[in-house]
Amino acid sequence: MSGTWNSQNSQESTSTSSSCDLNENDSSAILVYRYRDGLEVQSQQDLCKYLTKHPHHRVSRKRIPRGNSRIEVKTEDLYNEPERSAYQKYPNSKNSLASVGLPRAVYWKRLLLNQFQDLYIVSPDSSPNSSLNGSPESSHHCSPSHTFHHDQHAQMDGERVEQVGEQPADR
């Protein structure tokens, strides 16, 4: 289960927090993995504050199987339910993004006390459609003059191209 957090719209924000089972007033500890940033134990209250400050982030939940010391985070784990069903046929939806090792205390509390049932994954709000907008092909500031290195000795008529600093070959 996942959703995006949007502090601009309180109705959407409330529905998102309830769909992710986040309670702004709950100080109970949860396990949070920030995509490409690390793992930490924090309160639901702190996570809600973080998401309010960073409205272009989303949170998703992944169940932690009892007895596992590692969790595999895949691309599909970052998507909300509609996106997950829409993008399930994409070849990279099952790609592994991270293998997260649980801290010992979290592992034992999960195993013995049934705490930390879910891993909350915080990631930038993205999907395959929005990633196209960030690709070099769609970049408006990428031009051939920046892509190819132009050499003042280069010639286009089929003759040998000399590199800068290279001595001309005897002909």
Structure explained in plain terms:
- With 171 residues, this protein is an alpha+beta fold.
- The chain has one domain.
- The chain contains six helices and seven strands, in the order βαββαββαβαβαα.
- It has helices spanning 10-19, 44-53, 81-87, 104-113, 128-133, 144-147; strands spanning 2-4, 29-34, 38-43, 57-63, 70-74, 96-101, 118-124.
- The strands form two sheets. It has a five-stranded mixed sheet with strand order 1-4-7-2-3, with helices on one face.
pLDDT under 50 segments (min length 5)? 1-16, 134-141
Number of domains: 1
What's the β-strand tally?
7
Shape: globular
Series of H and E elements: EHEEHEEHEHEHH
Keywords, separated by commas or semicolons:
171 residues; 27% helix; 5-stranded mixed β-sheet; alpha+beta
Secondary structure elements and pairings:
Blueprint: E1 2-4, H1 10-19, E2 29-34, E3 38-43, H2 44-53, E4 57-63, E5 70-74, H3 81-87, E6 96-101, H4 104-113, E7 118-124, H5 128-133, H6 144-147
Parallel strand pairs: 2-7
Antiparallel strand pairs: 1-4, 2-3, 4-7, 5-6
Structure summarized in a few sentences:
With 171 residues, the chain is of the alpha+beta class. The chain has 6 helices and 7 strands; from the N terminus they run E-H-E-E-H-E-E-H-E-H-E-H-H.
